[in-house]
Amino acid sequence: MLYRALFLTVLLFCTSVFAAEVRGLYETEVIVRSQTVEDKHAAVKEALTVVISRILAGENVLQDKVVKSIIEDAPRFVKQQQYSLVEAASGANEDARIMRVSFNELALLEAINNSHLKVWGDIRPETLLWLVVEENGRRVFFKADSMPELNLAISKGSKLSGLPLLYPLGDLDEQRQLSVNDVLSAYPQNLLSVSDRYGVVSILAGRLVKSQDCWKADWAFYFDDRVQQWNQPCATLNEVIRSGMKGVYAQLANVYAAKPYNVEPAGVITLTIEKVAGQSDMDRVTHYLQSMPMVTSVDWLDAHAGVNRYRVNYHGDRHLFEELVGIGRVLDPRDVDSAGIGELRYRLLESR
C-alpha cells in the first residue's frame, strides 16, 4: 500500500504535467589524470558518484553503507568506457584525458535494492527556469544566444543532476506582463500567474550576480504550493548553477523516487502502439516501459503497418499503470474505453 500511495502522489502532480524522458542518467564524463590503474579506478569511482547522485533520493545518500560499498567496487558496474582523442581541459597534466563511462543500469539497481534508498527513474517533470543576471548594477533576463558561457554552465548543471529544464518564451506578451523585479520579488503572484501558460509543477527563479572575482546566486523554488529559498556565496559560475540544480533535485526526487518492490499483485496487459517506425522507435518504446518502477518485464509481440504490440507484466493497480504510461512525452493514450479489456492503445510521440 505504501507503493500505491506513493504513485497516487506522483500522479496527482504529474497527470497534467510536462514530463520528459531524461537520457544518459547512467553515463557521464570524467577526467583521468593518467593511465595508471590507480588513476583509472579513481576516475570510475568519481563517475559512479555522479550517476548515483542523480538517481537516488534522500539526504547524504553518499554516506549510506550500501552506496559506499557500491562506489568502492565501481569497476564491477562499468558497462563501457571510452577515452576522448584530445587532451583534457587546460590546467590538467599532459597525461590527463576525458573518459566517458557508462554503467550497467540493471546491475546497479539490483545492488541499490539492498539499501533503504529510493530510485528516481528517467521520466521526470520539466522545471521552468526564470533567471535574472545582474552585472555592473544592470539586471536582465537570461538569454541563451547572447550569454553562451552561462548557457553552457546551465546545460552542464542540469545534465549533472538529470533535470529537464523549460525556458520561458520571452515573447511580447510575456515582456509586457513580467519584469525582472517580479522574478526577484517576495510577492511571486505575478511570476506564478505568467508561468501558468507552461503547465509545469515546478518553477525555479534565480538571480545571478557577477562581481569582479566570482558569481553569487539567490534561488527560489516553487513546488507543491510551497517555496524553498537558498543562496550560494562567492563561487565559480559552474558552482553557483550547480547549487541551483542540486536544490531542485533534492525537492523533486523526494517526491518522485520510489522503491520498485514490496508492491501489490502482478498483472499483465497488451499495449498496441501506433507510429512505430523502425528499430530505433521499438528500442525507445521498450526502454521507456522498462524504466517504470511498476514494470517487471516487456516483450515485443508483433507488428503490422506501423502498429506494434507489446506484452507488459507489472505490479500494482492497473489504473495507476495506465496513468503512469501516459504522463511522459513518449506514449500518447488513444481516446478509447479500455475498461475491462486486456489491451491499451497508444501513439508514439516524436522524440524531442
Task: Name a few traits of the molecule.
Alpha-Beta Plaits, single chain, disordered N terminus, five-stranded mixed beta sheet, 18 strands, globular, alpha+beta, 352 residues, Rossmann fold
Write the layout of secondary structure elements.
Elements: H1 2-14, E1 19-21, E2 27-32, H2 37-53, E3 56-57, H3 65-72, E4 78-87, E5 97-103, H4 105-112, E6 118-119, E7 123-125, E8 127-135, E9 138-141, H5 148-161, E10 165-166, H6 172-177, H7 180-184, H8 189-195, E11 202-210, E12 215-223, E13 226-235, H9 237-256, E14 266-274, H10 279-290, E15 295-304, E16 307-315, H11 318-327, E17 331-333, E18 343-348
Parallel strand pairs: 8-10, 8-11, 14-18
Antiparallel strand pairs: 1-7, 2-5, 3-6, 4-5, 8-9, 11-12, 12-13, 14-16, 15-16, 17-18
